[in-house]
Amino acid sequence: MKVRYLGHSCVEIIGQHHILIDPDFTRDPQPCVDFILITHAHRDHIGRVAEVPAGRVMAAPDVCEIAAQMGILRERLLPVMPGKQIANIQVLPGYSRVNDPLYTFFYMLFRLRFPEPGGTPLSFLVKDEATLLHIGDTHDAPLPVRPDILCLPWRRTPFGAKRYQATLIRMAGKFAAPYVLPVHRDLPHSEADPRALNGRLAAEILDGNGWYSFRNRQRVQDGDWVSAISRREIKGD
Fold first, then answer.
1. Gap between the Cα atoms of 21 and 45, Å rounded
2. What is the C-alpha to C-alpha distance for residues 29 and 44, in angstroms, rounded to an integer?
3. For the whole model, what pTM was predicted?
4. Residue 114 main-chain phi, psi, to 5 deg
5. ∠159-163-168 over CA atoms, to 5°?
6. Of 103, 117, 118, 160, which one has the fewest beta carbons inside 10 Å?
7. CA-based Rg of the chain, rounded to a whole angstrom?
8. What residues have CB less than 8 Å from 33, skipping those under 6 apart?
9. Could you give phi then psi for residue 226, rounded to 5 degrees?
10. What is the DSSP code (8-state) at residue 133?
11. Is the dihedral of CA 95, 96, 97, 103 positive or negative?
């Protein structure tokens, strides 16, 4: 299983399936995507979905309708709700603040327009060589799961940034994930340095832009990952 951050809230996973989460990437994903998962319909989470030519689009029904309006063929849409599992993807409740007045205020303050409809938010737990949890951009996700990798929406707010980031760290601590992948960290007006997480969580911070490889719930170096696959092939696994 390989994981990497592609900008904004977008994460790419290659393992049992090729999965793209929140396709508003700033770096292009590899081709032949199997599933596109969308936590909610704000532009910085869904904005480039129509540029991905392959893959079933998995999102809440109202978010699927927004994707269709953006040009996704209906036969590619896969409406889901919490409790559903498709392939190795478990659908969980979402907590992104799609109708938060404070979010709307700051959005209008910096962009001089109302935000796009957010739709029904979801979270996704991908189960592979390691489990990966993506919670969109919320700072509070009371989910009863313990992922191996937490995609943490690490950002700063215009006011009370230290307090907000302390809230994010407390939430991450509750999940107790051994690996944290900071996402949402490069949006204009809310950029945050992922290196600021070092020493503040009992987790390894995956703060680069390259691939991170996992096997048996542990991160491995690329050479180790290739060797492990070769050993499995020799054994016929």
1. 8
2. 16
3. 0.89
4. -70, 150
5. 115
6. 160
7. 17
8. 18, 19, 20, 52, 54, 55
9. -65, -40
10. E
11. positive
